[in-house]
Amino acid sequence: MRRKATTLGLVIAAILLAASTSLAHAKLVSSTPLAGATLTTSPTSISLEFSVRVQSRMSSIAVTDQSGASIIVGKLVESDQGKLISVPLPEILAGSYRVDWRALSADDHMIDGNFEFSVGEASQMIPTGSADVDHSGMDHSAHESAPSINWPQSLIRWLIYIGMMLLTGGLGFRLFVLGSVNARTETLDARLIGIFAAAGLLAISGLLAALVLQTQMVTGSFGTSQAMSVLRETSFGPPWLLQICGATVAFVLLILASARNTIRRKIALWSAFGLSLAALLGPSLSGHARAAWDEYSLAILSDWLHLVAGSMWIGGLGVIAFAIAEALRDTDRLAAQASLSAIIKQFTNIAIPATVLLAITGLYNTWIHVEGPSALVGTTYGLVLLAKVAISGVMIVLGGINTFLLRPRLVAESGALADAGETRLFSSVRFEMLLAIIVLLLAAILAFLPPAREHKPISASKEPGVQEAR
């Protein structure tokens, strides 16, 4: 009993420590000239300094005068390891000017903003959709576009997460759980391969949609040439190719695994599992973890292990919820209950270490980018993260009930009581899987929100002189 309580305590601790997948969008730190500054002479350049590296090839700085006419600037250059971008500026006349900028951060998220400055005696500032206020000397980050939930990209990332985790974790369940308890049948294998193939197809479709959205975000339109430019010239490209190739080849292998040749099926399943593990590295190589890697050397590895551990947990739940119940329905009841008990026990032996790994990697990720408790309740990112952790906590409790209460009763009881226990067990697992799908949606939303340490609190009122972000 004490051992069970210790194990359950470790699992609950794991979920409380689990975090989302890593550091940061770029944040504008300062500009030259300063926002709202009045200069006595014409500046020779416009410079923007960011908190992390930005991808200069897909970034831009544009300048217009008070009439809206464009000022021709020089070629954009980068320095300070990509954290500083600037454009040469020709000599300009006295008057007011507006700078509009866009920057693609190291984690492949686009940020933008604008500010004004004057040369000589300040004239009427260029209208920007809000009241004129004095910005001189203010923190320039106040002029970035306000962070918000990117629903199209979040929903696409959600579909990719579902597909990849069902594919990777489901294959892991087939190889490490069903193989160990010898509970496989030809009918069950056929059903599982169909589920895995559908999961791979879902991931492939999501990745293609993600390329369309990323291309439109970066270039403003979509076409073959624009997509190829994004794949060649941004850090989004190589990880995306890794994911699409891994998922596609895994899908083809699963089609081959539907043959009755046992050796060929075994090779195909193991190969597909290895490819799915490699494809899971894609999000870690292109998102927040990649931005953190310059400063935290284990960020990418920690992020990937977090995804792998989550896949083994969630993918296994999916197999139990959608395949095992159907496979056992038409078999001998006593044999079915014995098989189910053995399956749950073996899955627990994998799920507990996976959840502990979630704890270790989650703690490291939290240390990277969550500034403190106040950041969790005062920002959009923090609130979404708290919701994710809370729902995951319910999943942990359900998992403990399934393992330590329902499974032992299933073994001890017989007849109608055992049938009722089996029904309760599957109902609990299906509800746990539903919660897992919600958790993946929240994780997808977090992937496109700036981390808590870089948000301005929701409750904070506008300070005097700070312009509403646009």
Please provide a written account of the structure.
The N terminus and C terminus are likely disordered. With 470 residues, this protein is α+β, with helices and mostly antiparallel strands. It has a five-stranded mixed β-sheet with strand order 2-9-8-4-5. Helix 1 packs across helix 10. It is 60% helix and 12% strand.
Count of helical regions: 13
Query: In terms of per-residue confidence, which ranges show pLDDT below 50 for 5 or more consecutive residues?
Result: 1-24, 125-145, 453-470
Strand fraction: 5-15%
Biggest beta-sheet profile: 5 strands, mixed
On the 0-100 scale, what is the average pLDDT?
79
Extended strand count: 9
Question: Could you tell me the radius of gyration in angstroms?
Answer: 26 Å
Cross-sheet strand order for the largest sheet: 2-9-8-4-5
Q: What is the H/E string?
A: HEEEEEEEEEHHHHHHHHHHHH
> Tell me, what's the shape?
elongated
Secondary structure class reads alpha+beta
Q: Distance between the terminal alpha carbons, to the nearest Å?
A: 58 Å
| Helix content, binned percent | 55-70%
Features of this protein?
disordered C terminus; 13 helices; 470 residues; disordered N terminus; five-stranded mixed sheet; four-stranded antiparallel sheet; alpha+beta
